Amino acid sequence: MMISLFELLKIGVGPSSSHTVGPMLAALQFVTELAQVRAPGQVARIQVDLFGSLALTGVGHRTDRAIIAGLMGEHPQTVDPQAIDDYFEAVLGTRKIRWLAQYEVPFEPRGDLVFHREEFLPQHPNGMRFTAFDHEAMTLLEREMFSVGGGFVADQRQLQSGDDELAQTVRVPWPFCSAEELLGICESRQLSIAQVVHENELSFHSATAIAAQLDQIWAVMNECIEAGCRHTGVLPGGLNIPRRAPDIYRKLSSDSNTDAAGCIVDPLRRMDWVTLFALAVNEENAAGGRVVTAPTNGASGVIPAVLAYYDRFMRPAGGSHADRGNEGVHDFLKTAAAIGMLYKRNASLSAAEMGCQGEVGVACSMAAAGLAAVLGGSPSQIENAAEIGMEHNLGLTCDPVAGLVQVPCIERNAMGAVKAINAARLAVLYGDGRHRVSLDKVIETMRQTGIDMQSKYKETSLGGLALNVVNC
């Protein structure tokens, strides 16, 4: 049983997959079920309780606004990012909510949306409880749900069984649970990793649909980079962090980087572009814009930055994105998704469980694998690149200042993108696929490290930079 690659790479809204996308989906799922099992006229009030990391950093991650949008029937893939604040302000002003955009009940965001900052549900750090009451204050429907990272949502039964609510699991021709199994399939069937993923994906979608969705994902990534290079001002949330991408873009665009003789002045200028791509995406994410969850929102700049590096500086020049074809882009994304599936299955994509090694670390590993594939790497070299990408992110904490996906998250994506490029080049250009530490071992090490990591370093804003920057 496998999940679709489009469950790992999906279009959503910022700033967080676990604290924005997941809660919005959970809220939508709850009211959808409520309308199916109860007459709308019976519902007098809806209450949402947030626990653990969702409560501690929920306001900075816009969890409250996401939940209201979800209760009103919005989906993160299709919601207008600009409308989320409008919904919140309308509910705040009227003290009423129109759930599923149809049925109006009283709703006080400061009373019916409760943040339990000192209480964690035992099943997962990102816990939510949705309750609908009738006119006698009797419970009509109650559900506990968990945002388990990467925009995936599970209830208690699904957590115990390992199945996520959003993951459409079907039987595929080449299932794999480990990198060792994946490499074995590639060797025995003479397939690339991208081909294995493609043949599995045909169990979910037609070849035409796969190509169209991958093109859409790449288009949204490009649009996010371009928007980040265009939008100016200060990021919301109170830290007064200025957007840097537009100024960097202007400086890089105005400098040819060659002297009068045509010689390159700065050989690292391409890395500056990679940094720009990552910053642009994550500034858009921090502002609540449209991004691709890849595999999370907090790490959404890594894969687009590395893929844009390939697109602009590596593949044959000439023509637009459309007329050059996107076969390399598709192979990159399919390969990256294969690696992401391994982390999701055998560890976690949740910073509330793993720290930032589970977000930027995983994105770096995925991007390194994708780039290694389009560099012409063998499956074993690709696996090596993915392993390098994570090995040097082990122990990375998640300590967002003021609970915002800004410091250190935005710059951290730029660092992760550059590291992914280095990992891919080391594995493919200067390696033969043989290495001492396997990807499976490094994934297990990441999982163990996440378990051992103190909770204050796992998306609670109770330690690290989140504590010391405020104290300074």
Mean pLDDT: 93
The shape is globular
Count up the helices.
Answer: 20
Number of strands: 9
**Uncertain stretches:** 317-324
Radius of gyration: 22 Å
Give the ordered list of helices and strands.
HEHEHHHEEEEEEHHHHHHEHHHHHHHHH
Compute the separation of the termini in Å. Answer: 50 Å
- Which strand-content bin applies to the residues? 5-15%
Helix content: 40-55%
Query: What structural class do helix, strand and pairing data support?
Result: alpha+beta
The largest pleated sheet is described as:
5 strands, mixed
Strand order of the largest sheet: 5-2-6-7-8
What does it look like?
The chain is 51% helix and 11% strand. The strands form 3 sheets. A 5-stranded mixed beta sheet has the order 5-2-6-7-8. The protein has a two-stranded antiparallel ribbon with strand order 1-9. A two-stranded antiparallel sheet has the order 3-4. By secondary structure, it is an alpha+beta fold. α8 packs across α14 and α11 packs across α18. A hairpin with a 3-residue loop joins β3 and β4. The protein is built from 20 helices and 9 strands.
